[in-house]
Amino acid sequence: MTIPDSELEAGLRNLRARADLTAPPPADLAERTRARYRAQRRSRTALGAGALVVLAVVVGVPVAASGLLSGDRGGEVAVPSSPAPEPAPALYDLPTRGSLAGDEEWVAGVRELDWIPPELADQLPTSAELPEPPVGSRRVAWAGEVAGTRVALVLGRAEQGFVGGSGQEGLVQTWFTGDGDAAPEEMAPVGYPGSDPGTGPAMLFAAPYGAPEQRMVVVVGAPGDEAVVLTGRTVTASADVVDRWEPVPMEEGAGALALGASSDWPTGIPVELSRPGESRPLPSHVTTGEDLVRAWNEPVEIADPRGLRGLVQEDVLQQAVQQLAGRYGLPLRDLRPTLLAAGSVGTGSDSLSGEPETRTLLVGLTFPSGATGAAFVDYWTDSYDMAQEDSFGIVLAPAGTPLLEQVFAVATASTVTVSGPASGVLAEIYLADGTLHATVPLVDGAGVGPLAPPAAERVRILDGRGAVVAEAPLSELEG
Q: Where is this region: Disordered (predicted)?
């Protein structure tokens, strides 16, 4: 199908108008993009499986109906289908909810607040335009208190032709927070305005006012909506992982939950949203406080007892720690990560072969249960010295062996990375039939070496006298 020139021109003009409303990219956009890409990549398998189920249902309907359409009833009894549920109203069309909804004076004051105060406006390029709808078009969707913090969600209709998530022309939203006694003029916006969530719930994941180490979540949806959030994942002493889900107390489809200081997430808290009459979970529209984003981009202190720091690219190491913490909802401040192993295999990109060297690293930690875990990354660097990750995975081990004594041995198609007891000087890699397949020199129990097919099965670590100090199966990574 060919798009007429008139439609193409109109579409391009609309895109330009919408681009003018877009906030400038944050300084840490690249870091956030890498983290979100990895999180999305790890979820693709699950999403793909879900898509196959949906496809089977969609394709199955016409096949089952074909007999009726052709007049061959074959003894089948037509069952009347249940009526489709009424579409949920947009948040903009719903009344104010929350514990402060009855304070009309306070709600009216919040409605009149500047969406882009001077301190935020000063950070924008002179050419940037952000939507700040007229006060008369604004509605406060939620006004309440959680964790000693006042929170408000305000929606409005912008004048620049912006189309919001509900499809209604110009609908945008912004969140405000303040202390537990904040007057309207003491409330501050959380980041920049954005498009409204349409008929889906809007969410805020942020730190309570004056409590940067704690977390809170606010969910504002349609009447009847329910929400449960993943407050963290517990790694037990036996290295099993237990998800900790907690319902958000909802009233008329909106509610809030104080999470305390025991959990944290780098890109917004995982949530499951449901609505009466909807068979599938609802999409979430999460706003994450900028203070949380900044905190996750602060460097983490990492122990280096084996002196390996010079062998790794620092941003790759930091991202590995962030992903390890983010997998289990662990606050970064509570981590005591340790660099366990690092090295490279190959001759480098300036060799005659032109093949870049492969670098790997293992960074580990001990969980409160005593179980240990390690994040593995293999990567290479391009001509601009930018790291390009090939794979990431996590391996867990039961409690009982200290982190630096625990055997982690991760094999890829071309490398093997080993961390074990400090007395180890050589790692022997064996096939399933007991054949010695490869050896890797170790320094203080750690080393990286090449590995060719076929797939190996076990590792044996020897000390300087040739005695076996540890033996274990090769580690199985969780992507």
A: 71-93
Burial class (CB in 10 A: 0-12, 13-18, 19+), 10: exposed
Residue with tokens 């662990």: 330
Q: Residue 80 has what DSSP assignment?
A: P
Both structure tokens of 184: 């309207």
Q: How many CB atoms lie within 10 A of CB 315?
A: 14
pLDDT single digits (tens) 354-399? 567 899 999 999 999 999 999 999 999 887 788 888 899 999 999 9
What's the rounded Cα separation, in Å, for the pair 312 and 330? 24
Beta strand extents in 319-457 (DSSP E only): 338-345, 358-366, 372-381, 387-397, 408-411, 415-419, 426-430, 436-441, 446-450
Q: Is residue 153 a contact partner of residue 175, using CB atoms and an 8 Å limit?
A: yes
Torsional sign, CA 381, 266, 177, 168: positive
Left if phi > 0, otherwise alpha if psi is -120 to 50, otherwise beta: which for 74? left
SS3 397: strand
The whole-angstrom separation of Cα 312 and Cα 417 is: 13
CB-facing half-sphere around the CA of 134: CA atoms within 13 A: 4
The answer to whether the pTM exceeds 0.85 is no
Give percent helix, percent strand, percent coil of the chain, each to the nearest 5.
Answer: 20, 35, 45
Separation of alpha carbons 284 and 282, rounded Å: 6
Asked if 269 and 205 touch (Cβ cutoff 8 Å), the reply is yes
